[in-house]
């Protein structure tokens, strides 16, 4: 992609407001997902492939919302400086000063041994209640991310695909996606879509992740195989159109065909304005989703940043090639 920026080691960040430690709140589903207001459908409309396309006003332009003052490609999408965090219950420190800059249009990969802090870092970014931030700062699209509730972070354009997506019994996919999508539109001051309009919007996205329409009728991740769950996560990303997608070991448990499907979908969703942060152990993911930057994490810190050649060194020499003295 011609617009991708070649990455060298991230430069020192300017001073940012420090975060006053406090416990992260428990996440909750947006109020739009309550039973009383949920869009109730018992089946997907049995329509032939829909050729009608939505106008620009009907599609959520998440990077061009009511206030697009923070979408300048010269402004970092995400700035993390000196981030420290502990497990909320035991106070064991996991993150020990993470620094990271993600610009619009970039793909970043974080690699490291088990227990190095990779997944903890991603969970802290989305506001997981199991962790407590004790220091540092995180700025997303020019705003203090750490001041936001988990659902506010999602509405602001942050998306996370988990290693093991959870089941949501009693809520089918099309209801869930319809409500989440309209919550984003409402946040951006855009008109919400009705059931048929939303079906016209989501239908073409099913082919992007190689999913059949009957998946829309199934409860969220209930009875899904590992590959189906990962495809469903990427379908959610395709529908919501997040500014920053955090993919935590999206390649875990996938066979070759499923990995190709997921990678094709992720690559198809990239634009010069949105970005991806991948957590992975394996070079095979980096061969199908080409990163701008690779970061090596150890003991709660990013100790090395470079281009794709880091993955080659890692495969040949292991993490000892990067371990801090």
Protein architecture, described:
By secondary structure, this protein is of the alpha/beta class. It has helices at 118-126, 150-155, 173-187, 195-208, 226-240, 256-269, 283-288, 309-317; strands at residues 22-23, 78-87, 93-102, 107-112, 131-140, 143-144, 158-161, 168-172, 219-220, 244-248, 275-279, 293-298, 301-306. Helix content is 27%, strand content 22%. It has a six-stranded mixed β-sheet with strand order 7-10-11-4-12-13, with helices on both faces. Strand 12 and strand 13 (301-306) form a beta hairpin. The longest helix has 15 residues, at 173-187. The relative contact order is 0.19. Residues 1-6 and 8-71 have low confidence and may be disordered.
In angstroms, what is the radius of gyration?
20 Å
Largest sheet: 6 strands, mixed
What strand line-up does the widest sheet have?
Answer: 7-10-11-4-12-13
Estimated share of beta-strand residues: 15-25%
Give the uncertain stretches in residue-range form. 1-6, 8-71
Helix content: 25-40%
How many runs of DSSP E, i.e. beta strands? 13
Number of helices: 8
Look at the structure and give the mean pLDDT.
Answer: 79
Separation, N- and C-terminal Cα atoms = 37 Å
Class by helix and strand content?
A: alpha/beta
Query: Given the C-alpha coordinates, what overall shape results?
Result: globular
Question: SSE string, helix = H, strand = E?
Answer: EEEEHEEHEEHHEHEHEHEEH
